[in-house]
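Hi all, long-time lurker, first post. I run a small reading group and we've been trying to get comfortable going from sequence to structure in the token notation. Rather than ask abstract questions, I figured I'd post a concrete chain and ask someone more experienced to write out its structure so we can walk through it together at our next meeting. Sequence below, copied exactly:
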Amino acid sequence: MSTPLRRGWTTGACATAAAKAACTALLTGEFPDPVRIRLPKGHTPSFTLTQTARTADAAMAAVVKDAGDDPDVTHGATIRATVRHGPPGSGVTFHAGPGVGTVTKPGLPLPVGEPAINPVPRELIRAAIAEAGGTDIAVEISVDDGEELAKHTWNPRLGILGGLSILGTTGVVIPYSCSAWIDSIRRGVDVARAAGHRHVAACTGSTSEKAVAQLYGLPEDALLDMGDFAGAALKYLRRHPVDRLTIAGGFAKLSKLADGHLDLHSGRSRVDLDRLAARAGLPHLATANTAMEALQLAQRAGVPLADRVAEAARHEAAKVLAGAPVDVDVLVIDRSGRLAGRASSSTGASPGSPPP
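-- Answer (accepted) --
Happy to help. Here is the structure in token form:
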């Protein structure tokens, strides 16, 4: 029997715990350790403090993020909250310390110039400070090495500069849900729309992203790092449409989308070689070792299998978009970055027609 995957806590939850502990120390002189907080869905986790410090007018507490079994870039990061008394009537104010970014582009859930501490973590921190007895409190959140960690996130592309975002809508990290990635896709759409881009590209990886950027001349903030989350990208665009969407990716991943899979991860969907053989009209493709070998066999036989996969993937994408005013084209990119197949509304069947 497999061991259940362990859940973890978001950066927002960790920042809340650190802020509550620091505020308590500012007001009472004592740090609660462990410190307990309340999350939106009723969880009440406790956090051990890893560092504390007090001066005459400030208190600092630090928590190390535990993301559970999720492959999170911020797992193990030290998240600090430093609190001070604010001017009377100021309420709780938020400030970006070292390693926390600042918003520089419109389209995010925070105004330009604000520290990248998202709305839900702000509400959690306000509630925790109120529970600790604080009223007018200035909260500075910082993350050790956050500026370097942010290079491995979407933040630079989204216009969040100088460090990480403090994220979380529930406070809980569900292993392998990759909720932060999905949230980044949504924020990428928001930023592209706010910038006035009418054409965005959702790409499964860096090779396809580079190819589509070169082909269409799209700016960086019109490129969505979709990864395996085709369904998340399409469903968000259904509610927040743009005029044109290009889906670009490798043959194997787009073969999964062509078969109706919206999660393209190798652990959650697989390439159906029998379906590929049927699309090509070449029964021997079903015995290929990989999708790439099937494509190569089809190419040798002069069969445009990549085009057929692209059209079927376009059809599936149109089904998810469900009539949203988004014109979709699909590009199949090989491992060298060259275009192997494509489909668009002008080259393929209409969205309501059956896939090839």
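A couple of things your group might point at:
Residues 348-356 have pLDDT under 50 and may be disordered.
The CA atoms of residues 16 and 125 lie 5 Å apart.
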